[in-house]
Write a structure and sequence with these properties.
7-stranded mixed sheet, 20 strands, alpha/beta, Methionyl-tRNA Fmet Formyltransferase, Chain A, domain 2, 25% strand, Rossmann fold, 2 domains, 8 helices
Length: 320
Amino acid sequence: MRIIFAGTPEPAVVALEKLIASEHEVVAVLTRPDARKGRGRSLHPSPVKELAQKHGIEVLTPTSLKPDTEDGKALRERLHELEPAAIPVVAYGNLITPDLLDVPEHGWVNLHFSLLPAWRGAAPVQAAIAAGDERTGATTFRIDEGLDTGEILGVVESDISETDTADDLLTRLAFKGADLLVETMDGLAAGSITPRPQEGEATYASKIAVEDAQVDWTAPATVVDRHIRAHTPGPGAWTLLDSQRVKLSPLSLVEEAESGAALADVALEPGQAHITKKAVYVGTGEGIVKLDRLQPPGKKMMNAADWARGLGGAKEVRFS
């Protein structure tokens, strides 16, 4: 089956690799234009574009898909020339206008990293971890005019461990989802897939801003733990110390026996940190956590105990 792959970031590369290795013909790739990165602000191609170029696949990089733009008009012309039977999509990052949805025979097929209708939107992996979900997965569905509302074509499930960061879970789902996407293309080509409507109550996972990653120390320790893991590595969970932003890596929940031994006669309020020779403990709305690594302003991520030794002997500080 002739397909055009639409995707941009690293997690989409796995799916493109699997599709290139499959029996389907990837006739072109649709990805976001080169973006400026680094201190020099030089232009860099998307990870998907880099892989496509290595395989000699045509790359389409319109700034907009709207029909009244030059890029949009040129894209429509090229799509009709290429005649794709389907356009699989993985984190493409550009709005697909309604008039384009029926161009391929089998439509635009999105790979979404959740069990729809759970966690529709831009950040399903982060939302699942933050919510304390024990299970998630990936779904292929036919894109329609709604937000992740189209008919389901395939599903694969995966457990969420108590230590998973967003990066851990997304990496695992990227591989499981890539296989699912190939299977979905196989099924569409063979006519063996029966699309089904989404069932159940929908939940939503909005795009995450840096401000959303701030730790709320008044929340229970388990919620603080999940919040930090959900925002690791990006945008990175953070807290304030003397009005300066400090980034936090995943931390440890402190069992009652440990807190009793290390914090005898110490009652920690939310955000209050107690420093010992070997550890930094922080109070939450319910329970205590132990910091592992943190990143002060202008410095690299470091061991929390090493950071604490640079505080001039302070036994307590307060995060907010």
